[in-house]
Amino acid sequence: MQTTERGKQPNLVEMAWDPVTRIIGNLGIYTKIDFENREVAECKSTSSIFRGYSVFMKGKDPRDAGFITSRICGICGDNHTTCANYAQNMAFGIENPPLGEWMINLGEAAEYMFDHSIFQDNMVFVDFCERMVAETNPKLLARAQSTPAPHAKVHGFDTIADIMRSYDPFTGKTYLEALQMTRLTREMFCLMEGRHVHPSTVYPGGVGTVASPQVFTDYLSRLVRYLDFAKKVVRMNDDVFDFFYEALPGYEKVGQRRILLGCWGAFQDPDHCDYRYENMTSWGRKMFVTPGIVIDGELVTTDLVEINLGMRILLGSSYYDDWEDEEVFVARDPLGNPVHRRHPWNQTTIPRPQKRNLEKGPYSWVMSPRWYHEKTGEHLALDTGGGPLARLWVTALAGMVKTPFVRSTGNGVQITLPQSGTLGEMEFEWKVPKWSNTIERNRARAYFIVYSAAMALYFVEKAMDRLRTGDVRTYQEFDLPDEAIGCGFHEAVRGVLSHHMVIKDRKIANYHPYPPTPWNASPRDAFGTPGPYEDAVQGCPIFEENGPENFKGIDIMRTVRSFDPCLPCGVHMYLGEGKVLREVHSPMAGLGGA
Amino acid sequence: MKKNDIETGRAQARVVWPAHVPGVAQGGSRGKLAKSVGLYVEGDKVKGTARRSTGIRPHDRDPIDPRSPNFSPP
């Protein structure tokens, strides 16, 4: 990572991190820091890579959508496959057979467990590990050495500093164990979806995986092994994050922004989901992670149709021309509601490469997705809280998920994990926090790992019940329609994911995937509203003990990484005449010099 | 063998075209299931027979109790 001091103003120091490490893609964070008041005065988030799925998907066979869009991401590609298939199911008028749906749910649960583990334990926690804290906050580390860990009996680490040490990259015990565990969860994923991370057996209408008792017991045996680790992780996270609140009063202000959370729902219930747009409101509410939008702590909707129609793609600071004069593909949805021309169904991507202008002009390849709140007329810059925060928050407030292992209570989510290798049955309760901030985004990720594990137990039971009846059907046949529209709503690991598709002449006429990072990493829109990264970093207090000379920006980096940033899905690449505009290598996980 | 020793005929797809060639049936096309050996539809379920796993005297390999589900080997 490159950290540069770009010039000084009377009280503000310009500092930039470009690219930010331990994430994929080319995210740049440009800030102006007020060291006298120890606060970030201004922040801009940019991306300098450009892709272009919405450009080159046009003219492709709709049945290929899941296989092509999987390549949007190298870590959550299967979320795209799944979402593309949801959209295709709607367009083709088909639904997944129950066993196929349970198997997709099992694959996606394994993906959440895998991805959250590797990101939380091998990347996020590098910012909280002993070596990092020693460099940025030595006084805090000294206190951690003498602070006993409240859940030492569960995870085996006596002090907070012991937990931090276990997260040291390449040497820490938890760091290494997490790597082993991610192998296990990837194996679970492959049992269901064929290959990680670009599934080979997930199609529109279901899966090609052969359903047998063996495949489920293979999955279950790995899951039970994983439970031990998951139980410990939650308690370690709680101990470290509670310590930060206690030892650094005011730390809740780091990364805090207005509570504006969106979740598009995950894990379909085959008993209710028929993929018809007309019934989307009701089957959306039966999902095992409830879709919804939380504004200022209040749940304003759980209706996927309302969520869909409120989507607006704004420009303002992005390198694109407007599409006001381009074709409107979908004037009304299948229920007769008008569809806005800034909605993904009607978007046309027109790239306009140009010089970055951080002061006045466009500065990012990311567009600015917003959600139009009809009651207030606001275009809201929703964030995903890194994924889990929004998922848990919406699910908790909605109170719709009631399963043997996961129960939503209206103000929290209760999760029960049965006895596993070394630890007995354990109860967890994620409670709606007071803030949408860095710590709570990270804490929710640990809780969503156990949420996914608990749901996976339920899905295995349901799949085995179905199998015992002799049913082995995992896919539904279909014919490709000449013209159709479809939309898929899902949760990528780091948050909301939607795919909007228009089919004409049996080919894709328009296709727009909207993954979480365009929402989170969006730049200032046409109304001047900053995107969530910018919003969360602006006004962020600085707790780092270093001065401007050896400033690492740890509080800023913790904030950006709490959103689980992943830029390849945030932008759209256009290769022109086959010319690669810019090649970047993926920054690896490590202490690096962050 | 050199590459151009193989007669492939005129290409039906170009790089920018959809991968699926008209006339080639897809695995998920309607009617495929009915043609699949070893599978039969019963109500809303699709069940399997031993023929799904072997072509050698499959009837002898069905479960002794007809109520038993019939699964392919892993």
Please give the number of β-strands of chain B.
Answer: 2
Multimeric state of these chains? heterodimer
Helix content of chain A: 25-40%
- Which structural class matches the secondary elements of chain B? little secondary structure
Sheet with the most strands: spatial strand order of chain A: 1-2-3-4
Query: How is the main sheet of chain B built?
Result: 2 strands, antiparallel
The rounded Rg of chain B comes to 20 Å
Order of helices and strands of chain B: HEE
Summarize the largest interface: chains and residue counts.
A-B, 30 and 26 residues
In terms of DSSP E residues, the strand content of chain B is: 5-15%
Contiguous runs where pLDDT drops below 50 for at least 5 residues of chain A: 1-10, 571-594
Percent helix of chain B, as a range, is under 10%
What would you call the structural class of chain A? alpha+beta
What is the arithmetic mean of pLDDT of chain A?
91
In terms of DSSP E residues, the strand content of chain A is 15-25%
The unreliable regions of chain B are none
Mean pLDDT of chain B: 79
What's the alpha carbon Rg of chain A, rounded to whole Å? 23 Å
Give the CA-CA distance, first to last residue of chain A. 7 Å
- Compute the number of helices of chain A: 17
For the largest beta sheet of chain B, what order do the strands appear in spatially?
A: 1-2
What structural keywords apply?
heterodimer; A: 594 residues; alpha+beta; 4-stranded antiparallel β-sheet; 3-stranded antiparallel β-sheet; globular; B: 74 residues; little secondary structure; two-stranded antiparallel ribbon; 5% helix
